[in-house]
Amino acid sequence: MSDEARDIAEQFEKAFNIPKQTWLLAAGASFMSNIPLMYPLTRRVLELAKTEIFKDEAKILSTIDFIAGDIDANAHIEIFLTHLADLISMSVRSRDQSVQLGNEKIGFDTLTKLHHGLLDIISDTIRWGYRENWDENGEPVDPNVGTSEVPIVTVEHHLSFVKAVFGRNRAGLEALRGPVEFFTTNYDTLIEDALALRGVPYDDGFSGGGVAFWAGYSRDTNPTSKARVVKLHGSIDWVAPKDDASRLLRVRHHDIYPAPKNQVVIYPQSTKYVNTQLDPFAELFQRFRANLADGSERVLLVCGYSFGDEHINQDIEVAMSAPDSQLTLVAFSEEREALPPVLDIWRKTSWGERVYVVSTKGLYNGNRGPFWEKEGGRDWWTFGGVTEMLSDGLPADIQEAMA
C-alpha cells in the first residue's frame, strides 16, 4: 500500500463523516427495492399505454408514435412527458385548442387524457413494483410485476440506510449538523416510509396527517425534525384536487377523496402546463441550490444518480466552483468503461480536490486514482454498499491495510 493510497483513504473517511450532510438519491437507490430504473420504466409505461390503456384510441396511439419518433431515440419517459406537456401548452395557445402532429390535428382533451393516463401508469408501476429479468444470453424473460394484491416493492434497504445515517455512532452529531437533507429525484415514497418506520421526525413541506396540503418548508428549523425530504421531481402520492387545481395535496392511496385531477408524478419541465399553478418545483430546486451554497462545511453525497440531468449537474457545479465554497462532493458511481463524463470533468478542475468518486474500479480524489482497486471490482458504490460503509466504515480489506 502506497502512502498516497493511505492518504486518499484517510481524507475520504474525513469527508464521508463531515457532520453537515446533504444526500442526493436517484433511481439506483430504489432499484433493489424492485422499482424500475428510468429506461425499464419507460418501456413498461409505453407498452401498457399502447397495448392496454389506450389500445382502442387511435388518436392517442398516433400521438404516442409521433412523440416517440420526434424525440431522441434514447430519451426516457421524463423527456417523453416533457415533450407531451409542451404540446399541451401549444394547444392551449392555439385558436382551435389543438396541435398539428403529422397529417392530423390532436386536441387538448386528447393530449391531456394521454398525459393523465401515463402518470397513472407510472404511479401504479412504482407503487407496486416492476423488475425486468434477463436470461444468461441477455434475452428478456418474464418480468416480476407487482400488483395491488401482491406488491413486490420492499423497504428493507431504505430501513437499513436510515438506521445507518442516524445510527448510534452518529447520534451525537445532531447539534452540529442540523437536519440531514435528503433530496431525491425518485417518485417513490421509500425514504419517507423508512424515516417514519424508524421513528425519525422529518419535514417534507406538507402540513397535515394522512392527507396533507403543501405549505412549503419553514425558514426556521423545527428542532424536532432530524431530516428534511425534498422530492425534486414530485411523488406518486401528490395530487391536485379536482375542485382546486391551484392546490397540492399529499394523499393516501385508494381514498375516494379528493377526486384527483391528475397525479403529480412530475418532472421539472420547460413548459408552463400544470406545474405553474401548483409549482412547488421552483421552491424545491431553490432549496437544493441554497443548501449547497450555504457557505458552511458540508458534504453532498450522491447515490443512484447517473449524472444525466443537466439542471441538477449545473446546480452542483455552480455550488462547487464558488470561490468561498466549502462543499465536498462524494459521488458513488458505477464505472463500466468509464466514469460519467461530467464527473471526469469535475475531478480535473481547480476545485477537483474536493471531489471524491467511489466507483466500481476504486476511489478517486481529484485527478488522482483509482486507488484501492480490487479484482472483480467493488460494490461500495451501490445503495447497499453505501449503507454498509455508513454502518461499518471503509471496507474491511482497506481498514486492515491501514491498521
Low-confidence stretches: none
Relative helix content: 25-40%
Main sheet characteristics: 9 strands, mixed
Give the overall form: globular
Average pLDDT works out at 89
- Estimate what percentage of residues fall within beta strands: 15-25%
What is the β-strand count? 18
Number of helices, where a helix is a run of at least 4 consecutive DSSP H or I residues: 14
Secondary structure class reads: alpha/beta
**Whole-angstrom Rg:** 22 Å
How does this structure look, described?
By secondary structure, the protein is α/β, with parallel strands linked by helices. It is 38% helix and 19% strand. The protein contains 14 helices and 18 strands. The chain has helices at residues 3-16, 38-53, 58-70, 77-93, 108-128, 156-165, 174-177, 190-197, 275-278, 281-292, 310-321, 341-346, 383-392, 396-402, and strands spanning 21-25, 98-101, 104-107, 130-134, 140-145, 180-184, 202-203, 206-208, 212-214, 227-231, 238-241, 249-250, 260-263, 298-303, 327-333, 355-359, 363-365, 368-371. The strands form 4 sheets. A 9-stranded mixed β-sheet has the order 7-10-6-1-14-15-16-17-18, with helices on both faces. The chain has a 5-stranded antiparallel β-sheet with strand order 8-9-12-11-13. Strand 2 and strand 3 (104-107) form a beta hairpin. Helix 2 (38-53) packs across helix 5 (108-128) and helix 3 packs across helix 5 (108-128). The protein is globular and about 70 Å long. The N and C termini lie close together (11 Å). The mean pLDDT is 89.
